[in-house]
Model the fold of this input.
Amino acid sequence: MTNINRRDFLKLIGAGSVGTGAGVLYGEVTKQTVELLIPQVIPPEDYSPGIATWYNTTCGQCSAGCGISVRTREGRAKKIEGNPVHPVNQGRLCSMGQAGLNALYNPDRIRRPLKRNAPGGSFTPISWDEALTTLGRRLGNLKIQGKGNQVTLLSDGVRGHLDKLFATFMQELGSDNYLQYDFAFPNALYKANKILFDIDTLPYYDIKNTNYVLSFGADYLGTWLSPVHYSLAYGHLRQGRGKRRGKCVQIEPRMSLTGANADEWIPAKPGTEGLLAMAIANVIISDDHYRGSDIDDWASAVGSYSPSAVSGQTDITESEIKRIANDFIRHRPALAIAGDNIASGTNAVSNILAINALNYLAGNLNKEGGVIFNKKPSLVQSTQQRHASYIDMMGLRDAMSTGQVDTLIVHNTNPVFNLPNSSRFKEALTKVPYKVSLSSFMDETTDLVDLVLPLNTYLESWGDDIPEPGVGFTTATVLQPVVTPIYDTRSSGDIILTLAHQIGGELPVALPWTNMEDYLKAGWKEIYSGQIANSAFNSFDQFWRKALESGVWGENKTCVPDRKNKTKQVQLNNITIAPEFSGDEKDFPFTLLPYISQTFFDGKGANLPWLQELPDPMTSIVYNSWIELNPATAKKLGIKEGDLINVQSKEGSLQAPAFIFPAIRPDVIAIPIGQGHTQYGRYAKNRGVNPINILESIVDDASNALAWSSTRVKISKTGKHIDLVKTSGVTRTLGRQIFDKPGKHS
Amino acid sequence: MSISVGDAISSFKIPILMGVMVIFGFGIGYLINYTFFSDRSPVQPINFSHKIHVTDNNIQCMHCHAYVDKTPSAGVPSVKKCMGCHKAIATDKPEIIKLTEYWDKQEPIPWIKVHDVPDFVYFTHKRHIKAGIECQTCHGPIETMARVTRVSSLKMPWCVDCHTEKQVENGRDCVTCHK
Done:
């Protein structure tokens, strides 16, 4: 054997050591990362790990009141679907409903009560005890001094027992100032229905069984009243009944999702849709299609609105008006509905009255495929209509700025974002000595208050709801917590009940319950005993369990409407059908059409990342605001897609990139509502623009609602450019012959 | 004339020997790691012994792993379950004192996972128990282990071998485990 000298021996030993070290290291890096197996300290009784439990509850993302089923595993909510047995959505759910999980797990949720240190200062976290004691003492003192009326509660449109609880609380406190405010609440529609049909609730629009939907701006597939229900009905109308395929006509200046799905899209001049309806009524009368005893009244009411007289004002030809009128009559049962931008001008109520009159003249009232009146919901004693109109909000503003409001409690609503700058609401709000906000998120209004009480989301709360618009029979849904609260938050009901006990006096007598669950059960006990005759249950507990299990309770029969289809009288004689606009046509040549976004609703959804990244259905744009312009307008002004445009109204200006949109009138520009938050969490903050800001404070006199489609603007280029993020390519075919040779690509 | 390979490589003898030593050392090193520092048998926060519970005291598996025939996971017992017995039994032992400390603080015990499959594998205990597979088939002689040691690789070939051998219906379909 060869001798190995000392030097070589050391080399070999060294090599061996390096090898061993590498081997150990290799073994180490190929190990799996350590994962922990965390047991529960105390096992829950209501689930097994790995097995999904579904809870039925009610969606709180908009006001339609759909039923949802939430899939939970290990006590965490994982997925939201529609509740199949709920009469409103029948197992379906919209994108906003799906995104409810984003609200629950949102990283920007307020996690504990906050107190403002000094006026204009920052917030400090405090305990619930301290927060409720401070507020309770303040309210108690006001009550003792007989100044209960200086407390104002401004809530979102809550219904059912929470509404009743709020009403009782405020009443016992000695205050009449309990208001509800939602930007998208259809004040004008309620008012018009009240005038024409003398009903307080919305009727059921039976799109499912109708033959012809004449929709004036109502985006019933996107945002109007109860879009999931109407989308289902639309599907049935189109394909669900064999050969009798219903026809849809959409009259609106900017094509909505519903317009895109309609057979005809007719862009009448903004605000003149009521005139168009009058002309259609005129044709119905003059062509002898209406035979009622009050025909003479109607004839005189609509006599001056002949198609030839109206055609010039509406931009629709005489023959077109006659054709629509004849179609409407021939396809009975037909349905004329009005909503969204058509129902938010200065002549909103007049417009809706004229459009509703078509249903009357064609005999579509209270029959299948027409307008069916809902019974007043008898389940929960609804106190009164509390939705604040714009004028009511201005009343509140004046009360606040003149010192008549000592304590303002805001619940889940965001008037600072949803009222125009010209309302001066924000300035008045800051003058209130003590402001409290009950909210899950730090929105623009909550950012201004002195005390923040963080709320559970609807997935963590008890409550109930009565869908509005109703579905033709009496029904109610229960809202039950599907998960235990994730943070140190409480539900509105629990907060109010705790406050009642804190304040003392008569309040604990009127509201003896200590939590919302007990209050709710007590209320439903009344429902149970009222229905005991036709009930299949032995006890209330059995009934309550069943209601929680199915998530919805309703009468097992369609209601017989409690009134016949009569109108009080012809109400079309002295209506102001001509629209008014802020700003004259010469200086401000374009009508600004802010529209309710299908993803963000009135701005509430902007903090949910799933909705931020959901492309708008008409433009496919994500993450930003945009201004829709007709190609002809854009060409005339030399504007290209993405050019930053300055939009100037009498009240202010905003800047957003242009989007060339062929389906909009050349004299109209449209901006979606929902973006442009200055607060409201990381996903919403400083993104896009809020068109509500630049609206002028003009109202529809009949309903006192803000006329948010009645502001004129002028536009100019800024010279800057922003690339719009969108999923679609170009809107033109670029010679690809996609449309003219259909056989080639099929 | 003969050609000597030995002569030809003799000048590279030392580098070659060094290479052999590296490979040899690598093997030794890996083996040391595998034998003495293996993740198949991690040291747990509480030195829990299956031997004491199962062999010595004859407690059935499903007394603690109650979900094994009902759900995908066998269910690691809750701290409350442990305390159900150990409020009274062996309360003076150091490991039980540790357990009591967790219970007093109402904190879970951070057990280290010994058996784990990646998230893209759908594995369910329920199905295997229903098919009559013994715990020991995968977990080895767990009733004798003072500290749990993984004896199976839990890699895909190991799964598929067993599915093939037992002729499991759809046992070789991708979607059976990769949903």
In short: Residues 6-29 of chain A form the longest helix (24 residues).
